[in-house]
Amino acid sequence: YQRRVRGARFTKMRQALALALALSTAAATVNVPTQQIAHGVSIPVISIGTWTEGTSSDPTQIVTNWLGQGGFGVDSAYIYFDQKKVAAAILASGVPREKVFITSKIPGCLAVDPFVEADLRELNTSYIDLMLIHMPTPAFNCPTAWSKLETYVQSGKLRAIGVSNFKQQHLEPVMAKATVPIAVNQISHSVLEHDDDTVAFCQAHNVTVEAYSPLGSPARAKKNSTSVFTDPTVTAVAKSHNVSNAQVALRWIVQQGHVLTCLLYTSPSPRDS
To answer: What's this model's pTM, rounded to 2 decimal places?
Structure first.
């Protein structure tokens, strides 16, 4: 749990821990630090996810609450089918568009142009801060899809581009052809479940790791799924440091220099909400 991180990274991790502490109170105002992912582009260390399938959450309320608390990173995707709700919530919040960091995702490595244009239209914005390829499918076409995304960076419609759910065998062909570096690889990553090989490859190639399901998807818990809220080791660490299980899980991610996206939901423990 305790790990030394020097210089600027140490400062950033302390800020991120402060954010985790602030998040333990639902009405708290948060001050979210950022991390550079591309030239002139910095992503919030914590973004709020809007995928609500299988939960009782609503994307409009999620975005409204998050922006109201001072958060500014919003993570959506074409296949979430919530872009209009996200756009409306951002507009209604009164937060200027340039103050909101929007991440979206095209489904895969086919039909790049229609999906990007649809996302821009549905999100009611002239640009998206970070666009990801949601899945490496079909894998053989991902280098070509990446080249298409690069043209949107050049036109200013996308500020940064990245991938999601890519492993080394998917990343290498894209890297071999890329003229715009991969900014982010968003992967399932938590203190309980982590792909160390993919993380190490990304770090070695200056690709920012963004964790999704950093708390183990408690809102979609299935019979054998993991959750930081019930894991005995996480609980013991939290108790020994007088913090919540969620704080331990988030700290484990950010202290390694990663960023994350998670879903706001109500926990049985108010401290973890």
So the answer is: 0.86
